[in-house]
Design goal:
By secondary structure, this protein is mostly helical. The protein contains 2 helices and no strands. Keywords: Membrane, Transmembrane, Transmembrane helix.
């Protein structure tokens, strides 16, 4: 279930970046898409660490 949500959020982030990319220009759109993907990955890493702490005790 959580994997599906993460996958959907990734797709939304990429699509939002592409829409911005088309609407606002090449470089700005790529930067925003990259930031969204990087933020998604960081949230995933943090969630995994918290989940491991929660389940190990």
């Amino acid at each position: 279930m959580k994997g599906r949500l993460a996958g959907k959020l990734t797709i939304v982030a990429v699509l939002a970046g592409l829409i911005i990319h088309i609407g606002l220009g090449y470089r700005l759109g790529l930067v925003i898409a990259g930031i969204a993907i990087a933020a998604h990955l960081l949230v995933g890493v943090a969630a995994r660490r918290l989940w491991r702490r929660h389940t190990s005790t």
